[in-house]
Design a protein that fits this description.
- This protein is mainly beta and 301 residues long.
- 7% of the residues lie in helices and 35% in strands.
- It has a six-stranded antiparallel sheet. A five-stranded antiparallel sheet has the order 1-2-9-8-7, with no helix packed on it.
- The longest helix is centred in the middle third of the chain and has 7 residues.
Length: 301
Amino acid sequence: MSSHREAPEISKDPVADSTDVYAFISPDQPDTVTLIANYIPLQGPAGGPNFYEFGDDVLYEIHIDNDGDAKPDVTYQFRFTTRIRNQRTFLYNTGPIDSLDDADWNRRQTYSVTKLLAGQSPKVLASRLPCPPCNIGPRSTPSYLDLANMAIRTLPTGEKVFAGQRAEGFYVDLGSIFDLGALRPFQNLHLLPLPPAPGVNATAQLNVHTIALQVPITDLTKSGRRPTDPADPKATIGVYTSASRQKVLVREIDDDTGIGPFVQVSRLGNPLFNEVIVPMGRKDGWNASRPADDTNFVGFV
């Protein structure tokens, strides 16, 4: 389910822009569900010297509804912290990065995972979990796959988690579809015809930042059991992801400070709903609303 840069305001705030959300039975562990939330769209791999990263000032969340009322019953929250090892260099790394605590890696992120059950107090499941570095190149990250695998962690409560840069997995011909809705293989049939051409995967060489969570099914169902009948209503969950910022931002010379409660600025659950169906004047409002209030937008469907 994908929406990249789908609303005017969030397109100016990429670190809070949710681009994709996926939920599926884990092929490697069928007794678990894999939840994936992607952020920061259309990253160029060569985007240094300040490579892409999660926002320290953003609250990232994955929400699960297990009783069909469009309100979250289980929420996982993710907060990130960035630390600079060497304040006297402009470099992201000063040599090859061979491990997640390599002294040559100058700017690194860690994160915490908090679980929130409806009506209960939040519970911090883990903190200071490491993100891998960005995949910079063969000199800086010669064994990137190993670094990424080092960042996959199992929490004390049984969940498995990863947060870091990944290749964009959503195939879409952005250049064609937003050029007045053309599909290249059939564009000779368009009102403004052009010769037909093969489709182009506009995201083929681009990256996103992924939060991936593998959770036991029994932790997500309302009954706490694993349903055996796929047609059983208890076997269905609803999933959406969101990003929030604090209500007030105070700008200083050396730093910006957020103050007050968090306000949702981005969400994603249904494919292309806000991107294609909601009119431009209402898109920012949709990002700030909750699924339980989607009846306010049903007239556009």
